[in-house]
Each structure stands twice: as C-alpha cells, then as structure tokens.
Amino acid sequence: MNKDKLISLLREMSQKEKEYAKELKELTEKFKHPVLSALIKGIAIDSEKHSMFYESLAELLSETQPFLSEEELEIIKKGIKKHIDLEAEMIEFTHKLIEETQDPREKMILSAIYEDEVKHHKLLLSIQKHIAEKETFTEELLWDAVWKDSPWHGSPGG
Questions:
Q1: What are phi and psi of 136, to 5 degrees?
Q2: What pTM was estimated for this model as a whole?
Q3: Residue 77: predicted pLDDT
Q4: How far, CA to CA in Å, does 34 sit from each of 28, 30, 42, 55?
Q5: HSE-up of 98 (CA within 13 Å, CB side)?
Q6: Which residue has the higher pLDDT, 156 or 125?
Q7: Phi-psi bin for 153: left (phi > 0), alpha (psi -120 to 50), beta?
Q8: Which among 8, 24, 55, 82 counts the fewest CB atoms within 10 Å?
Q9: Residues 62-121: pLDDT tens digits?
Q10: How large is the average pLDDT for residues 22-44?
Q11: Which residues have C-beta within 8 Å of that of residue 132, sequence separation ≥ 6?
C-alpha cells in the first residue's frame, strides 16, 4: 500500500472510531444501569483513544516530527517514571482484589481494569525506551553534526 493511501485509510479509521465512540455514549443515555453504563462508556473512551492513535499515525507518516529538547525529555522521563510506578501499584492492587472476590461481576470489572493497567504499564515502558529517547536532539548530537563529520573539524574550509 502506498504512503498516501495508508494515510487516507488511517484518517478514515480515526473518523470511524470517533463515530463509534459517539454512538456508544448515546447508547448509555438510553438506560440507567450504572455498571453497564460505565463499561460501555469505557469502551467509548478506548475508541476515542484509538481515533487519536490513528490520527497520530497519519501525522507521523505525513509530517516531519519535531525533535524533543533535552529539557522536554527530562520532563517526559520524570512524568513517565512516576506513572510507571503508579501503574505497577495499581496492577498489584487489582490483582489482589481479583483473587479475593467471589462475585463474577466484580471479577469481570476488576479484570478489565487489571488488563488496562498491564497494557498501560507496558506502553509507558515502551514509550520510555523507544520513542522519547530516540526523538531527542541532544547538544551532543548537535556538536557531532557540526564538527564530527565535517572535513574541516572547525577550521575554515574551502
């Protein structure tokens, strides 16, 4: 599939996910059961998230992405580290509750939370490793670009 077709398809999928999310939210307005409403709204939120992901992929393929500064990287690292720790805590907490409860309805809801926490934890670790560090333009990279590969190494060239 060529790049333009893929970008178009990604944007189309983004729109479909937005529409699906809207329909699910409208569905929850037609009944009053709080647990079912929460579960369906949760799926709607995931669809909104998927829409953002599809759109970000389209942008990734169609535009040059800005580099992160070293300062931005530090902010991201600290924020992600905090949330990685929090997700680990929530994983342990929900796992314990799942083991303790006998009510299948509670187990279903807690299992959904647990699975999301595990996914979030893995995603944050992946962001930390694969995206934030690779998208950073450090001062060292700048100087390497200016001097290291220059045939004149700082001296006037011709």
A1: -90, 130
A2: 0.76
A3: 84
A4: 9, 12, 12, 31
A5: 15
A6: 125
A7: left
A8: 82
A9: 988 887 787 888 888 889 999 999 999 999 999 999 999 999 999 999 999 999 999 999
A10: 96
A11: 68, 73, 76, 77, 80
Q: What is the Cα Rg of the chain in Å?
A: 22
**Contact present, 32 and 66 (Cβ < 8 Å):** no
Question: Which amino acid, one-letter code, is at 132?
Answer: A
Whose tokens are 């595990």? That residue is 118
pLDDT, position 114: 97
Over residues 5-20, the mean pLDDT reads 98
Task: Round to whole Å and give the CA distance between 141 and 148.
Answer: 10
Written as six digits, the tokens of 117 are: 């926490």
Tokens, residue 148: 């290291």
- SS3 annotation, the chain: CCHHHHHHHHHHHHHHHHHHHHHHHHHHCCCCCHHHHHHHHHHHHHHHHHHHHHHHHHHHHHCCCCCECHHHHHHHHHHHHHHHHHHHHHHHHHHHHHHHCCCHHHHHHHHHHHHHHHHHHHHHHHHHHHHHCCCECCHHHHHHHHHHCCCCCCCCCC
CA pair distance 17, 23, nearest whole angstrom: 10
